From TrEMBL:
Family recorded in the similarity comment: Belongs to the MMACHC family.
Signal peptide: none
UniProt EC number: 1.16.1.6, 2.5.1.151
Annotated protein name in UniProt: Cyanocobalamin reductase / alkylcobalamin dealkylase
CC per GO annotation: cytoplasm
Keywords: Cobalamin, Cobalt, Cytoplasm, FAD, Flavoprotein, FMN, NADP, Oxidoreductase
């Protein structure tokens, strides 16, 4: 029943399915998210509607992705990690909330307008999951007119995580008892913010930005090898790992540089 659900109970239920797979979930109100963005990017739900952002931690690769490959559930027509995330979240939602209307949006999905279905880093910020560092956070910017892309930093994992999905619980309204969390500003100095944004924008391939704060855990060597491989070449890598026995369709190459920069890995 909808009247028995609140932010805490939804988080507990999702955690019971997703924590063991290497995911974290953070609830927030739609209104907090919409307040950060222009109306063209708003979620079309009442401000008090409950939403949840889902992150993958370094454990996801070994706890969810490799077992997903072993299960042979994946198809070769799209990115295997995307398929794994969708399988994990769909299974959790259907089991935990069989009678609820839940709008699930994934980080790789686009609207017909080519805009993303949700802004992952804004969702992570308003939920308190990670601090979204942007050009506007730096006083006396040294970059002139150059556009610098922002990046989220997790207080425990630094940059060794990814924002995977948004869940909107269409019939669950949250009252004033839920207070908006303040994300931890774990890169407080101007100099460190500059170092973070420059590492992310100019040297994102070397992943040094991920270590801007000492992480409690990083990706395993196998996971680093996978995400360092170009998306179009990952099926060939999986074949060398023994997960594919025959050649087949290649993955969608829409996972371009910007997707990777925005934390797809």
């Amino acid at each position: 029943m909808t009247d028995t659900l609140n932010a805490e109970s939804v988080q507990v239920k999702l955690d019971s399915f997703l924590t063991k797979l290497g995911f974290e979930v953070y609830p927030f109100k739609v209104g907090w998210y919409n307040a950060l963005l222009p109306s063209s990017l708003h979620l079309d739900y009442p401000e008090s509607t409950l939403a949840v952002v889902v992150l993958s931690t370094p454990d996801m690769f070994e706890q969810a992705f490799l077992p997903f490959l072993e299960s042979r559930l994946f198809q070769r027509l799209s990115d295997p990690v995307d398929q794994c995330v969708k399988h994990s979240i769909t299974s959790a939602v259907s089991q935990a909330f069989p009678s609820q209307r839940v709008d699930v949006r994934y980080d790789y999905e686009l609207l017909p307008s080519r805009k993303p279905k949700f802004l992952a880093q804004s969702a992570a910020h308003v939920s308190g999951a990670a601090f979204y560092y942007q050009q506007s956070n730096v006083k006396d910017q040294p970059w002139g007119d150059k556009k610098m892309f922002g990046v989220c930093v997790h207080p425990r994992f630094g940059g060794w995580f990814a924002i995977r999905a948004l869940l909107v619980f269409e019939d669950v309204m949250i009252g004033s008892e839920m207070l908006q969390p303040v994300p931890i500003d774990c890169v407080p100095s101007r100099e460190e913010k500059i170092r973070l944004l420059e590492a992310f924008n100019f040297r994102w391939q070397d992943w040094s930005y991920r270590d801007i704060v000492p992480p409690v855990q990083t990706y395993s060597q196998k996971q680093k090898e996978y995400f360092s491989t170009k998306p179009a070449e990952r099926f060939a890598l999986l074949k060398t790992w023994g997960f594919l026995s025959t050649e087949g369709d290649q993955p969608d190459e829409s996972l371009d540089t910007q997707n990777q920069m925005n934390g797809h890995g």
